[in-house]
Amino acid sequence: VPHMELGRQLRECQITAEERNKHAFYIQRQSDQHCSRTIVDSLTPDDVRILTESEDEWNRRGHFEILYPTLQSITQYPQFFQQPRYYNMLLANWLQRYRGNRQESRGLALLQSYCEQGYHLSTESRWKTPSLKNPYQLAPLSQNKK
Q: Of the four, 33, 90, 105, 133, which is 20 to 30 A from 25 by CA?
C-alpha cells in the first residue's frame, strides 16, 4: 500500500544537525519579530513535513474548530506556554504569511512543489544561517527550488 509506505517514511524521518541549528537560531531570537518572520523564508525538509501535516489537519477538520494554531490564537496563547517552541513559531508565521494575507493557495502550491520534488523526505536542507549583521536577508523562495 503506497500511502502507508509514505506514512512510515515520514514517521522515520529525523531532523538533521542543520535543522536543529535552525530551531536553535529562531528560538534564541524569538522575541525579535523581524527575525522570527523569516522562519518561513527558507524551509527545511522537516519544516515542509510539519507544514504539510498541519495543512492536511486543517483540511480534515470538517465541522470541528481548531483551537491552536489559528490566526487568532497564535497571538493569544503563547503567554501560557512555559517556553517558546520552534514548531509553534513556524506555524504562526506560516499562518500569518499565507492565511492572514489570503495567500493560502500560494502556500499550498509551495508545499506541493516541495513534496513533488521529494524534498520533505530529503536529509539535505537548503537553510543557511542568516548573517548576524543582517539576519533578515535570506535567499528568495525561487532560489530554494531545484
A: 105
